[in-house]
Amino acid sequence: MIEKVSAFILRPGSSGSEILVLEHPYAGLQIPAGTVEAGESSDAAVLREIQEETGLRNIEIVQKIGEDQTFTEADEAILTQTMRCFSWPAQTAQRTGPLFTRGIRMKIFERKVGFTHINYEEYDLNLKTPKLIEKVDGWLPSNFLTHEIQRHYYIIQVLEETQETWSHFADRGLTFQMRWVPLNPKPNLISEQLKWLDYLNKWE
Fold first, then answer.
1. SS3 of 147, please?
2. What pLDDT, in 10s, does the model give residues 86-103?
């Protein structure tokens, strides 16, 4: 199993509550979210992810509003350790491709002698027709892959005034564009995250 966190950063607006969203340069409109590191609590993880993705530091947890347990599709898995792929299914094989961070989702195929054949593809989803920007094919130890995800959901408040929009240079050399948007109607988040907003409806 791997643990993940999602952050609903809210503030009062002139026409109701507003939520902070970020525009990922490839992956579309999102809220801050990420993976709990080994030995880290979910409370610490959600604050760290917000700092890394938005640059905000003067923040606090208002409330943890829920958690759920889900599973990937049968042909997908989540990496539980940061590592590079092996070029074939053996510990002595050459490492290949980029360094994958724990928490990345990938396609899986056949298994051999404790290894699983994987394929990772990343697309630019901000284009009208998504464009493939990275593809990796290789092998990973099967015991470092999981289908089970436990996600923790948090309400967060910012303890200082912010700009309406700003940019933040985040991990992997990416720049995220932040902005406040009304919570109603629902912001057009990427499909995976839209269902997370149901936790806000229950909380309100």
1. coil
2. 999 999 999 998 999 999
Instruction: For domain 76-146, give the fold.
Output: SH3 type barrels. (2.30.30)
Average pLDDT over residues 152-179: 92
Tens digit of each residue's pLDDT (9 = 90 or more) over 117-127: 999 999 888 78
For 27-46, the DSSP string reads TEEE--EEEPPTT--HHHHH
Closest CA to 49 of 152, 202, 188, 146: 152
Residues of the chain with CATH 3.90.79.10: 2-70+148-203
Number of C-beta neighbours around residue 134 at 10 A: 12
CA-wise closest residue to 187 among 31, 61, 38: 31
Q: Is 86 exposed, middle or buried (0-12, 13-18, 19+ CB in 10 A)?
A: buried
Provide the CATH topology of domain 2-70+148-203. Nucleoside Triphosphate Pyrophosphohydrolase (3.90.79)
Cis peptide before 185 (omega within 30 of 0): yes
pLDDT at 49 over 90: yes
pTM of the model: 0.92
